[in-house]
Every structure is written in C-alpha cells, then in structure tokens.
Task: inverse folding
C-alpha cells in the first residue's frame, strides 16, 4: 500500500520555475576598439554597470543605464579597462530572451554554440544551425545553414533570414545537416553533418563563416572499412574540440553513426557490436583531409549493436566525459546518462544506479527525456540535458565534477509553439543556457537566476581579454546539503521496545542560510514510518509529519554545519527496520541527500505488550486520512464510509473522529496494526465524539490497561490525553470532549479535520482541563492478604502470562508458581499460603 504524503518528496533544489523576464547573469561581450571608442554588447538588463579604468585607478559608474544590445564609452587616455556587470538574481530559472525576438526564430533549428573565449571580439557570439528551410512561427523564412547573433540576439552578419553557408556542401537531410556545433578555443567554428549518403562528417570554418574546410573529406559512410580508410561516419554528437591547428595540438572528439570501430588501430568489428563508441581524433597540425583512425573510447551505455541511436558526448572543463543516449523508455534497462573519468576508462557516475539509490527505484531511470544533447557549464558547476520528449530539458548541479541527483530539476519546458523535440543545449561564459527546439522553432536563453558579478577586461588592442564571474544565491537561493556523519551506523542492533536517537550532521553546501525552528529548515520523514519516529524537539506543524529542527536554535550559513536529531522506538517484532528522511526548506521543498536510520531489532521473545512503536507509526503514517476501517465521524454521531484505502480526510466535514483514530493507533486492524491492544467493538457509532471518554475510562482505565497520572513527564510516547474544553474536572466518560495520541516531546496527533501536530501544553490553560492517561506496557500485579493467604491478581485482558516467584533477587532464580490462577470477575487470581521467607513475584510471557 502506498500512501502519498504532501510536501515530502521534491527534486527542485535550484527552484527552477519559469517566470517573467527578471533573471540575472548579464555580461559584457563583443568588445572592440574603434579610434578610442569601445563598443560592447550587454545580453540583458543589469542592476549596475561600472567601467573600471587602468587597474582600478578610476571608475565610471553607469548604474542600470546601459541598454540590452550595443553600448559604447570613450577609452580616452586609459590603457586598459574592465566592464563590471552586476545583477541581483531572482533565484529561479528564467527565460531572458523573448520569443518575439525575430532573430531567435528559425524553421529548423538544431545545434547551438556560444563563443566563450574572452580574448577577442568574438566573445559571446552565438551560432545556430538551421537544417530545415521554411517559414518560422513569426513569418520569418529561414534558409539552410548557420545563423550568427551577438549575445543580445542581434543579427551579427547582417544576413537577415538568410543563413551563412561558408561554402559547406551539406547533406540533404533536413534534420541532421547541419546538426551540432562547437566553437574551438581559437574561435574557429566546427559544424557536424549527420546526413546520409555522401557527406563530410565535420566542417571547419572561420568565425564569420567566409570559407570552410572539410576535416575528413567527402565519403559515403557505407564505405567504412579498413581497406578504404574511411574513418568517420554521420556525426550526431557535438564535435568537442581542444587545441588548434596553429598550435599543433588539435583534438576532435565525437559520437558517430556508421562507425563500427573495435579498437584504435582501425580494426572494424566483424559484426554489429561497436557502434556508438566515442571517437577521439588526434589531428595535431593536420593535414586535411584527416585519414588516421581515432582513439576508441568504449561507451558504457552499451548500445553498440544498433546503428542509429542518437547519442552525445561533452568533455567537461576538468576533462571528464559526459555521455547521454536517446532512450524512449526509462524502464528499458539501460542508463541514460553516465560520466567517465578524464582517461575515458572508468565510469564515475551513471543515472540508472543513481536513480535506484536516490529514489529507491530500480526500474526507472529518472534522467530519461529521449536525450539528444548534454552540456557542462564552463565553470564545471552545472550540466543541462535535453531531448525529444515533450520539448523539455533538465538541469543538475555538479558536486566534485559529477552530477548531484538531489539537485535534479526536470520538465523545464521551452517554447509556446508546441511540438516535442529539443535538439541541443549550450552554455555561455556567464552560465546562461541556450536551448534550441524543433518543436517551437526557437532558440531560447535561460538564466539560473543567481546573483552575479561578471567582469570582462581587456587592453586597448581588445585582443588580450579575460572574463571572471562570481555568483551567489538569488532571491530564493540554492539549497543543497551533504551528509557529514550519522550517529548510528546502518545495521545497528537494538532491543525491542527501547528508545534510541539518530543524529545527522549535515554541511550546508548551498547558498542559502538554514534558519532554525519548525517554520525554518527541518529534517522531514520521507514515505512511511516503521520505527515510531518522535521529533527530538518541540515542533508545531500542519499534520503529523515527523520532523527535526536545527539543534541549538542557531542559523547555519553556507559551508556551515547543522545537526538534526530524531528519537525512535524499536518495534516489538524482531527484524530490520528503516526510516528515510530529507531536509526541507521553509517553503516545504525537499533538497539534499536522502538519509536514513536503519536498525536491526533483536529477538526478545513475544511479550504480548503494548507496541508503542507501532502506535506512533500509525499516527505518523495515517494522520489526515480516513483510517483503515474506512469510517469517518463528522458531528459526534453521524459517520460515512469512505473505503479502506486511506482516502484523505474530507475537509468539508467537521471531523469528530478523534476517538476513532486513537483507537486505531493503539489497537489493531485486520489490515493495518497499531499498538496491538485489545479494543472493544469498533462498529459504528461507538467511536464518534462520545467515544472519547468511553475509550479512556471504560476501555482503558476501568479495563486495567491504563492509569490516569498527574504530569506530562509521567507520559510515554504512545499514551493518550483527554480534553474537557469547559473546565470540568470529572472523570466520567461524558466529561471528555476530545482525545489525542501523545507522540512524545509534548506533541499530539489527532485525526480531526483540524489535525495538528500540536504542542500539548499550548492547550493546557483555563478553562481547558486535560486528563493524562498512561497505558501499561505489561500487566500490573495487585496483592492482598487475608489471614495467612496471599492473593496475587492481574486483569484478564493480559492473557497468556505466567506468575513466577523467587526468594532472592541476587541472583534471581525465577520458577513458575504451580498454583493455577482462577478467574474472579475481571481478574486472574492466584492464592498461596504465606511463609516466613521473603518471596518476590513477577509476571512473564513465556
């Protein structure tokens, strides 16, 4: 049975929610010097822009005046400058361009790449591949080729709706030619061709697309074999480039169709077994066309028998290989994303294993979007993945260079024109995301919403530039955490019915400050409770969600350490038990790793005792739901049958279901066990509002299960409290208006519509009177003397117990009393003749 709890599980740790155009990450690009006038491009509006001259000797503060697009200032006699652009972030993923920007609309957009080299004026230039000519959504009739814009989506080459071709002889495909793009570190653009028949694999062109060179030479992919020397196929992954021809160290890495290389010496596989590997061409200084075979890196995703699976590879700034594949089903048994080390030999991370570990889902890969593209941010902090499913993409933060699945943000939909295919994604130097969609026929640009300061610097030649970005949390910040330690190791042995505490120490690895208290950052139960979880400190929250607040009541800043503790009660039955928890922020959004407490309850023998752990677990799991018999009381006498599948409490009703709920917590149900006590018939209408006093006095106190005590300190988790709102101090059943389960640390659970995990002393005030009821964990022995006869008795509701005796407690040698008990009224009675020795008695459950 699965019970869905509200606000328990969530995967948005970057708070990536599309909102209006109010984001961040503006920066200066496209810097040129023309006769002492510096021109530069601002990609979006900024909070404040400063022009800093001569290494900080003077500053011109322009405020928010610079416009989106081209701006200018005079260099005068200065020899160097820096353009510092600051903006306060919104804390949300936000589209920063406009779908109505004419130059961001294309009929068949495919690959996208952004120049991230700050040395020259090409910095920030955006390239979009258009494979399918036609009429875009805004009436713009675009052609086949490459479109070039500046960072503000302005037409850089002035070609309007006509794409630049650079003399490239593309294949005829309107889907894969041209396809993916890459800007090399020397500003050269590399264009992948995935068309069938005679094609060129990868083309190399200058930043302005004036001329081009084919790297491998034109060939038909079907001729791939050792004797022909054809060493490439249809390139369907991003052409990763490092080095340059001029530097003699050009390396090209890609994924390809049609290439079935088994090793790096040009050995083709004898059968379809090695498609979809990663191929790395060590070109150096050339020459072209390049005829040498690539180094083969085995692809761990394992689709080598199929030619035609879309895959992409991205080499991260630290050298790791990020790989993704187009899988139509998350449950087909393969992985969708994996990360290799910088030598391409070891899998460091894969999405299927991570999905099983993080979500407890061994069937579905949670990173399945029919993935077409993967890209890592230039600061190695984020990865974006997109594909053919629902026009969506997803983002994750990286921790130590690999994805942190706790930060996974999914279903980031782009475009207003419908359709279903996102083809490519790229980052600029300021961590903005560029996404192309064949479904909406657009290029869309997104900001992560961080608060950023981006500084673009150069000298008067404008050929020696540099770039730096510093970022912090936006308006809502980035929540993240890392587990430092847990006080109880998994598999710790505990005895039945004992209490124990698990303490988690967490490092704040996000950019927000964790605030204390129940309305701040808490550690919350995820899913079902099996261990009678009791909050370690007093909390007040809607519904009975076990949570622990920060110990010490002190806020935890980024990089600080917070401590969260929770008390638990071991169940009576032996076995392994696990409860899961996750941090929640003040907005009830969960984040960080899922942590646990896992213990092994040792066999302690059946005691037939009240199982407080089960009673607390019942309250934790089903508070706010119609209990397992399906009945719900509304006004003290009326009830409705809602079914036995735990439907939510009907919020339109008054909700006088308190005694009914508590009886389930402490008793037993045919399908869900509470504490296991014997409860009288629960047939309607026994447990409406009048049942509160009946449960406390008639069943529990008068039945010998419980006793009324005078202070809260005498209660244990799993006891109950009765309430009289008018101030009556009597103990008659009709004097009880309400009954609640006591869950420990002063907290209550109630099943009424107003169900609050309330702090009990907050209700203890005039005219309210509370009645504190402690339930016995075992039968109590009563003794009476008549002459030389000792009568030992206990109530008949504790069945199966045996009376034992010993003459010494040190050491104790307990033996069964041979006299059989007789039943007198509601008691078992054993009568023995008294002796001159001291005799000790106990009840035991064999």
Result:
């Amino acid at each position: 049975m699965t019970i869905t709890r509200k606000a328990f599980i969530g995967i948005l740790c970057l708070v990536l929610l599309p909102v209006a155009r109010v984001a961040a990450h503006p920066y200066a690009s496209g810097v040129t010097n023309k006769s002492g006038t510096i021109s530069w491009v601002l990609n979006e509006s900024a909070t404040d822009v400063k022009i800093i001259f001569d290494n900080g000797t003077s500053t011109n503060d322009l405020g928010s005046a610079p416009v989106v697009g081209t701006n200018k200032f005079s260099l005068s006699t200065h020899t160097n400058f820096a353009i510092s652009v600051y903006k306060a972030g919104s804390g949300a993923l936000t589209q920063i361009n406009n779908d109505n920007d004419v130059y961001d609309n294309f009929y068949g957009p495919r690959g996208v790449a952004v120049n991230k080299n700050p040395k020259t004026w090409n910095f920030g230039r955006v390239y979009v591949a258009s494979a399918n000519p036609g009429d875009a959504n805004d009436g713009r009739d675009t052609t086949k080729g490459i479109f070039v814009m500046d960072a503000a989506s302005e037409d850089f080459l002035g070609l309007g709706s006509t794409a630049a071709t650079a003399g490239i002889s593309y294949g005829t495909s309107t889907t894969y030619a041209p396809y993916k793009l890459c800007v090399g570190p020397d500003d050269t653009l590399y264009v992948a061709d995935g068309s069938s028949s005679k094609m060129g694999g990868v083309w190399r062109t200058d930043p302005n697309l004036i001329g081009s060179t084919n790297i491998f030479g034109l060939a038909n992919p079907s001729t791939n074999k050792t004797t022909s020397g054809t060493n490439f196929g249809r390139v369907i992954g991003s052409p990763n480039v490092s080095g340059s021809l001029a530097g003699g160290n050009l390396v090209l890495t890609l994924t390809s169709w049609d290439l079935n290389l088994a090793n790096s010496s040009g050995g083709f596989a004898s059968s379809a077994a090695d498609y979809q590997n990663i191929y790395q061409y060590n070109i150096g200084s050339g020459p072209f066309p390049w005829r040498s075979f690539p180094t083969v890196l085995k692809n761990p995703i394992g689709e080598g028998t199929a030619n035609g699976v879309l895959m992409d590879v991205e080499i991260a700034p630290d050298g790791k290989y990020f790989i993704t594949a187009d899988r139509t089903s998350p449950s087909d048994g393969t992985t969708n994303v994996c990360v290799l080390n910088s030598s391409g030999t070891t899998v460091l991370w894969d999405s299927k294993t991570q999905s099983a570990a993080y979500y407890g889902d061994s069937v579905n890969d949670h990173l399945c979007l029919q993935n077409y593209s993967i890209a890592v941010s230039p600061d190695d902090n984020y990865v974006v993945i997109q594909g053919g499913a629902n026009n969506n993409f997803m983002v994750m933060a990286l921790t130590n260079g690999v994805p942190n699945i706790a930060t996974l943000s999914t279903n980031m939909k782009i475009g207003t024109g419908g359709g279903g295919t996102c083809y490519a994604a790229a980052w600029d130097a300021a961590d903005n995301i560029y996404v192309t969609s064949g479904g909406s026929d657009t290029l869309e640009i997104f900001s992560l919403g961080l608060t950023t300061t981006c500084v673009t610097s150069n000298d008067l030649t404008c050929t020696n530039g540099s770039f730096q970005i510093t970022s912090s949390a936006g308006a809502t910040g980035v929540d993240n955490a890392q587990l430092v330690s847990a006080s109880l190791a998994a598999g710790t042995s505990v005895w039945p019915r004992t209490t124990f505490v698990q303490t988690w120490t967490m490092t704040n690895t996000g950019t927000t400050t964790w605030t204390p208290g129940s309305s701040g950052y808490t550690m919350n139960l995820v899913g079902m409770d099996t261990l009678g979880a009791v909050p370690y400190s007093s909390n007040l929250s809607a519904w009975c969600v076990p949570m622990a607040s920060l110990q010490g009541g002190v806020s935890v800043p980024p990089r600080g350490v917070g401590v969260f503790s929770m008390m638990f009660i071991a169940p009576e039955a032996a076995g392994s038990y696990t409860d899961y928890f996750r941090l929640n922020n003040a907005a009830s959004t969960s984040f960080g790793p899922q942590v646990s407490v896992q213990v092994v309850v040792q066999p302690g023998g059946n005691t037939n005792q009240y199982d407080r752990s089960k009673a607390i677990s019942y309250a934790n799991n089903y508070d706010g739901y119609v209990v397992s018999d399906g009945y719900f009381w509304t006004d003290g006498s009326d009830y409705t049958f809602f079914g036995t599948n735990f439907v939510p409490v009907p919020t339109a009703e008054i909700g006088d279901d308190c005694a009914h709920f508590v009886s389930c917590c402490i008793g037993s149900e045919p399908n869900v066990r509470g504490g296991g006590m014997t409860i009288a018939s629960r047939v309607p209408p026994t447990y409406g509002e009048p049942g509160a006093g009946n449960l406390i006095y008639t069943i529990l106190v008068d039945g010998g299960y419980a006793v009324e005590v005078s202070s809260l300190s005498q209660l244990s988790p799993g006891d109950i409290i009765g309430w009289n709102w008018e101030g009556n101090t009597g103990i008659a059943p009709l004097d009880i208006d309400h009954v609640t389960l006591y869950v420990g640390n002063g907290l209550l659970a109630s099943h009424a519509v107003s169900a609050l995990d309330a702090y009990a002393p907050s209700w203890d005030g005039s005219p309210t009177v509370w009645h504190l009821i402690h339930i016995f964990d075992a039968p109590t022995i009563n003794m009476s003397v008549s002459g030389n006869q000792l009568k030992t008795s206990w109530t008949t509701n504790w069945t199966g117990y045996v009376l034992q005796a010993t003459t010494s407690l040190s050491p104790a040698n307990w033996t069964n009393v041979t006299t059989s008990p007789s039943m007198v009224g509601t008691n078992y009675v054993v009568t023995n003749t008294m002796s001159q020795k001291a005799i000790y008695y106990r009840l035991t459950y064999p």
